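Bench notes, afternoon.
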Amino acid sequence: MRRWDALKNNENTNRIIAIATLAIAAATIVTTCVVVKGSSQTDKLVTAADKQADAAKSFADSATNINLGIKDAVDKLNIQAGELDESAKQMSRLATATEKANANVIDNDRPWIGVAMRIDPLEVGKIPTVDVSMINTGKRPAKVTSMEFQGQVFTVFPKIPPYKPQGPPSTAILMPGFPTSSKYNVTNESITQETMNVLTGRTATLYEYIKVEYVDVRTGTSHHTHACWNYIPETKAFAAGFYSCTEYQDAD
């Protein structure tokens, strides 16, 4: 009762209210400081986070720019590589064209040996002779390494006609435009009546053929000339004599 009476006293009540008010005010101040301090820390964290976000964005932008720069450099290198490849192909085509042009010039200037024959008329009891002339119609000298000739009777001319041994092959340099000639016997024995009967009856044919092998003195390339004549008896259209064969007429 005494405590309640004491509280009921105005003076005491005012003191208590004042003390409570001071306590509340102090608590409010402390709370406000804590909130303000917490708010300040939060602002700092937000600012730091913003700075980190800006830095990350700047780094991402830099990385993007670097990637774009690398891609641009790679694209340029690819273009340059393509241009170099095309240039190399063009140079190869030019080199090939030059080689072909040079080869054409060399081929156009190569030696060409042509052969002509003049054969005596066939007579029973005589050995016919033949004059063979050769001429180099090319533009470079030719080295003749072999010249073989043969006269023989065939019912059908063979694809690869035989040649009898004629001793060591003769060699000679044949200059462009200068002809050379030689003479030899068509057969090794006289023409018999039996042989004439076979030839005039067309049961077989007398062939005179020749093979010339030679080398281009500049390139060392080997070439050959084949030539052939056959005896045709007298007909309404032709006089008896030797005429060019349809076979064994080629050169390379």
